[in-house]
Amino acid sequence: MLEAAMQGAQQAGADTELFQLYDLHYQGCKSCFACKLKGNNVNGLCAVKDELQPLLEKAVCADVLVIGSPVYDSFPTGMTRSFIERLVFPAVNYCDYASPKIRKPIQCACIYTMNAPENLMQPLRYDTILGENCRVLGIFGGKPEMLCSHETYQFNDYSRYETAVEESVRADIRANRFPHDLQKAFELGKRLVQKAKE
Ligand SMILES: Cc1cc2nc3c(=O)[nH]c(=O)nc-3n(C[C@H](O)[C@H](O)[C@H](O)COP(=O)(O)O)c2cc1C
């Protein structure tokens, strides 16, 4: 899904980079408040120097930021949350939550993949839970978008795993619906770059 979004962004003229959060060693915010010290020189960036730091610097300099995560136990992954904590908290003015220190708008989006079907989004409160990351990313000045891909094809060989899911149903979704999800991701990437240019 992220690769499709990148292709859309490229078609709109953007240079793109994909990062795998799971390749990096980092933790969430440790509440050191170095980013909130009076007279600090971190300039809206997390003060913790670890493998996430270069990515945070790139993220705040980007025109567009698309974050992809599977849904784990009803939430975006912990790695995703930790990244967003470290990205967002230093960028907010603690006295006035609505005022970002990072001035340039960053057009943001979150892409989620999940087992659940679309009609369970509301009953499981996923629209609210997953929507929260978009809400907080709004401090970067854009109107963050959310895109979900449901009922993903989870295993290469369904016969080896315990699951209530019918392989044939998921294979059909993978073959016939997933390409539309990829197209939506492509259009999302393209749209965000176009918005960034406006
Ligand atoms: C630890 C774990 C927890 C999961 N919890 C949920 C869940 O609460 N809801 C859901 O719809 N899918 C859940 N899933 C399924 C994943 O969201 C699904 O397999 C997703 O497509 C994986 O993303 P990927 O295909 O992009 O790797 C879970 C999977 C794992 C491994």
Please provide a written account of the structure:
- With 198 residues, the chain is an alpha/beta fold.
- The protein has a single domain (2-154, 168-197), classed as 3-Layer(aba) Sandwich (Rossmann fold), CATH 3.40.50.360.
- The protein is built from six helices and six strands.
- It has helices spanning 2-11, 53-61, 78-88, 126-137, 167-176, 178-197; strands spanning 64-72, 75-76, 92-93, 96-100, 107-113, 145-149.
- The longest helix is centred in the C-terminal third of the chain and has 20 residues, at 178-197.
- It is globular.
- Flavin mononucleotide binds at residues 70-74, 113-116, 152, 154.
Bound molecules: flavin mononucleotide
CATH superfamily: Flavodoxin domain
Main sheet overview: 4 strands, mixed
CATH class: Alpha Beta
Number of domains: 1
What would you call the structural class? alpha/beta
N-to-C CA distance: 25 Å
Report the order of strands and helices.
HHEEHEEEHEHH
Number of strands: 6
Helix content bin: 25-40%
Strand content: 15-25%
Low-confidence segments: none
Strand order in the largest sheet: 2-1-5-6
How many helices? 6
Mean pLDDT: 95
Report the radius of gyration as a whole number of Å: 18 Å
Gross morphology is globular
Which CATH architecture? 3-Layer(aba) Sandwich
CATH topology: Rossmann fold
